[in-house]
Amino acid sequence: MEFGNLSTDQVLDQFMQGFARRNPGEENFQQAVHELAADIVPFMMQHPKYRKMHLLERLTEPDRIITFRVNWVDDHGCIRTNRGYRVQHNNSIGPYKGGLRFHKDVKLDDLKFLAFEQTFKNSLTGLPMGGAKGGSDFNPKGKSDLEIMRFCQAFMTHLYRYIGPHTDVPAGDIGVGSREVSFLYGQFKRMTNELTPVLTGKDLAVGGSLIRMEATGYGAVYMAANMLEAKGESLAGKTAIVSGSGNVAVYASEKLIEKGAKVLTLSDSAGFIFDKDGIDSEKLEWIKELKFERRGRISEYVDQFPNAEYFEGERPWKIQADLAFPCATQNEIDEADAKQMIANGCQLVAEGANMPSNEAAIRVYQDARIMFAPAKAANAGGVAVSGLEMAQNSMRYHWSREEVDTKLQTIMADIHNRMVEYGTEGDYINYQKGANIAGFIKVADAMLALGVI
Ligand code: NDP
């Protein structure tokens, strides 16, 4: 990319046109790259050492993409075929690291954007981890435990060649919790005859870390607490809308309740529930049993707690609240949703999910100058504790719940401080810009040091 006498906007347009040509039809990947490049291009124009080395082109091309067929046998004896993927995006600062997603709609576009985001998120944690993502279009909904196990075994039978504790360490994501990670780990052990810590998010019985399950949701709330504290405020007494009812949403809610905030909503892909009295700890325990044990639907909440309402086919963003925690999936908040949230007096958005706000929604937050923690910072707690799980496995030692939680809080506070350092614009903190630049610098410096490889 030549900068010549071009303006920042012209350089960005030229870069994005080339990027779109190289990645046709991959709208999520293009969106994630544009969000980062919009902050990095002006930064590179002021810093020639990055500009000259074509870092943006190099950083937006994954190191390697592996795709494979996954055959498995269902409970009726039928042979089923799915597609498996691993996108190894960048390993300049450490082994590839990033989750596996099992969802019927998974396509390469999603995994490329997620692996790209993961590279900068992992950099922000300060831990030595590169970026990757993987998964399959396998639909875990309605499958028996044995079907899930057979699928995980078939998936690992291909993947095991490409991963290793110093090469690539996958973890969970949508549709992949500690049950699936442990089945995957079991198959890796069977194939290699080694109990090498090659996955994180494992069950505690096989080397998982305390707080890993809670870490993404807790981390998003710690980030929000840091942002509020910077303004002399706190979570206590605030109302919050949360989307999703999986791992991230449930533990974000748990920490919000613990910090004295009132959680009003949760959702799944079929609709959302609104409990004007607030979802308290007791109700949340019921939800955990519903979602993690019975694998039920969030609509069942209103049968149990009749004061609540269920909105079929809708998302929770129209409910008035001080804080918003999108914790379900990508592009779940559009411009109209964001405008409605601002009109309702929302002061802070912390993204538990990956890329839940589209670019127009982010512009609405920034124009309204509310506090906005982008996913790569707000949900970095999960991978941070994955990094701590790797450290504990290497030491063959376990830290207590308190020790892991304290380290998680420190990491989230450090990320907050780095975003403030690079994102302060007068009296406004542009956390998105801060996260993009701080995440970029560490990876870019490592790439410069390693040479053109
Ligand atoms: P789970 O599978 O545990 O839960 C996902 C939740 O999101 C479910 O309630 C699901 O509803 C809902 N959901 C999924 N797809 C859609 C959709 N298309 N529209 C509306 N709702 C949807 O996943 P996690 O909680 O682990 O992950 C949630 C988000 O957080 C993802 O973006 C993930 O990448 C991100 N993340 C997760 C981390 C982790 O540690 N787990 C780490 C960092 C980010 P339903 O059951 O109906 O599908």
Structure characteristics:
binds NADPH dihydro-nicotinamide-adenine-dinucleotide phosphate, Rossmann fold, single chain, seven-stranded mixed β-sheet, 453 residues, alpha/beta, 3 domains, five-stranded mixed β-sheet
Q: What does this molecule look like?
A:
There is one protein chain. With 453 residues, the protein is an alpha/beta fold. The chain has three domains: 8-59, no CATH class; 64-195, Leucine Dehydrogenase, chain A, domain 1 (Rossmann fold, 3-Layer(aba) Sandwich); 215-378, Rossmann fold (3-Layer(aba) Sandwich), CATH 3.40.50. The protein is 49% helix and 16% strand. It has 17 helices and 14 strands. It has helices at residues 8-22, 27-46, 48-51, 55-59, 108-125, 145-159, 178-192, 212-230, 247-258, 281-293, 301-304, 335-343, 359-367, 375-378, 380-395, 401-423, 431-450; strands at residues 64-73, 79-90, 96-102, 131-136, 168-171, 239-242, 262-268, 271-274, 309-312, 323-325, 348-350, 371-373, 424-425, 428-429. The protein has a seven-stranded mixed beta sheet with strand order 9-8-7-6-10-11-12, with helices on both faces. It has a five-stranded mixed beta sheet with strand order 1-2-4-3-5. A hairpin with a 2-residue loop joins strand 13 and strand 14 (428-429). Helix 5 (108-125) crosses helix 15 (380-395), helix 5 (108-125) crosses helix 17 (431-450) and helix 9 (247-258) packs antiparallel against helix 10 (281-293). The two termini are 18 Å apart. It binds NADPH dihydro-nicotinamide-adenine-dinucleotide phosphate.
The gist of it:
This protein has 453 residues and is α/β, with parallel strands linked by helices. The chain is 49% helix and 16% strand. Strand 6 (239-242), helix 9 (247-258) and strand 7 (262-268) form a beta-alpha-beta unit.
